[in-house]
Amino acid sequence: MRWRPDRSGFHRPVPGHSTPCPRSLPSPPDRRPPSPPGRHRDFRPLPRPLLPLQNKDVRLMSPTDRTRPRFPLAVYLFGALAELLFGYDTGVIGVAMLSIKRELGIGPGLQGFIVSSLLLGAAVGVGVAGWLSDRFGRRWIIFATGVVFAAGGLGVGFASDVWALIVIRFVMGLGVGASAAVVSVYLVEVAPTRHRGAIGGLGQLMVVLGILLSYGVGYALQPYDAWRWMLGLSAVPALVLSAGIVFLPETPRWLILHGRTDEARASLIRLGRGAGADTELAELDRALRMADRKPGLGFTLRTMAAPGSRRALFGAVGLALLVQFVGVNSILYFAPTTLVHAGFGDNAAVAANLGIGTANVVFTLVGLSIVDRVGRKALLMTGCAVMATAMAVLGAFTALTSHSAATAWFTLICMIVFLASFAATWGVCVRVVISELFPAEIRGSATGLVLVLNWLANFAVSQSFPTLLESSAALSFFLFAAVCVIAAVFIRNVLPETGRGHVLDASPAVHQDDDPQRSGTSTAKSVRPGVDG
Q: What is the CATH number of the domain that holds 181?
């Protein structure tokens, strides 16, 4: 082995040569620590050399990194659990109403009020929760949402009369509204840019899973008229949500906005993005400091109404109203009543509801798989076309035929087509788009204010639908078809594009005409590499 001196003057072996080292050459000093008593030092192995760190942050090797979950998807799924309760509480009332109206002897007006009382509470909850989430954090408001759901679920099981039921449903609506305002914001802010649409749409997946779960519970309990159990079982997942949300990370954006940079870094590590945490934090901080953040409702309203933000505001408000006027929630809430009106029996209508709920879940999964591959606007307009066709065909068939088995089955098919197209397009997009349209410093408050209008529209449509269905089912379906056409025109000409790789908080991209088919410009200029929301 051949030897050569190193920088310290000691000779080191050269690989590939076997000439022994001459005894006259000095040997490197033995820097090993002294051996324990009773052991010969020659039997202890030399310590492994420390390799130099190359382009790595030593903080990523801290014990915090070992607490990172292997599957951040578990964080996203649990963060969206409040939406399961949202879906369950809004879906179960349609099945329970078949038993409630028999036991309590109520007409169409009170039926609509029992359903819409939850929506009225949601209109209050969604406005308050958005402001509270900006002040106290997204995570703790989701915790409070679980507590409200649990209290309402336990209380509704002991409702003594119709008015007690209405009051308790109003309280549960506070949780529904808070879920609608905060969960989508939480998911959008913890998601990486390349998967933001799919992860933000997980909330809608949990909604439709909750609806399907409510249909299954209703199918099992409806023969016993156990409507109190149907409504009260929502307390179980609510308690699970309240206990588990404590262990989830707060969103990095909210932490950066409140000057808690170290916690934001730890949050990114827990979300599986520790390798680029410092780069991402720097980009987030630079993006969020571009606006002069000031708390308060007045600042939120001024920011929403600023000249550069008006297109985003019009797009968010229009989308929040149109998603209710297309009739999807009226179809969902009153699906058993609609099917009974079309010719099904009570048990057959509840069983058919399971088919509607299954289609809703399947096509929500389809929507999640494509939402980040195509633009949000293209997806929404495709949904408008299919929904308008389904409602127009159903209206014409209902107007030209009498009640029969064929009418009942055709109504069910058209409802499934309508809800499947909604689930794959509008269902996975609407609340994600509304959250994406506003800058981070007002995102929670602005989303909450816009969704107040959404729930008020939901209240108005749900309150009037039972009476309209009794008077003319065909007219109600034609009205929904017309609104779908209006929605397509609105999306084409007013709504900004927020998909196709747009980075969250890159506000100029949504305040300008960024549809390359219309303006001839590329959206790539609005994407800043290195920012994973």
A: 1.20.1250.20
Q: What is the pLDDT of residues 283-309, one digit of tens each?
A: 777 766 654 455 567 777 888 888 877
Confirm whether 448 is domain-assigned.
Answer: yes
With respect to residue 356, please indicate whether it lies within any of the assigned structural domains. Answer: yes
User: Does the residue 397 lie in any domain?
Assistant: yes
Instruction: Give me the domain span that covers residue 77.
Output: 70-248+292-515
Give the whole-angstrom CA distance, residue 489 versus residue 227: 42
Q: Which residues contact 371 (CB under 8 A, 6 or more apart)?
A: 197, 198, 201, 379, 428, 429, 432, 499
DSSP-based three-state secondary structure for 12: strand
Can you tell me whether residue 57 is helix, strand or coil? Answer: coil
Low-confidence ranges of the chain (pLDDT < 50): 23-25, 39-70, 291-292, 507-533
Q: What is the 3-state secondary structure (H, E, C) of 191-251?
A: CCHHHHHHHHCHHHHHHHHHHHHHHHHHHHHHHHCCHHHHHHCCHHHHHHHHHHHHHCCCC
Q: Which long-range contacts (CB under 8 A, 24 or more apart) does 342-345 make?
A: 342/398, 342/403, 342/407, 342/408, 342/411, 342/412, 342/473, 343/403, 343/404, 343/405, 343/407, 343/408, 343/411, 344/408, 344/412
Question: Structurally, how many domains does the chain consist of?
Answer: 1
Q: Residue-wise over 386-408: b if at least 16 C-beta within 10 A, else e?
A: bbbbbbbbbbebbeeeeeeeebb
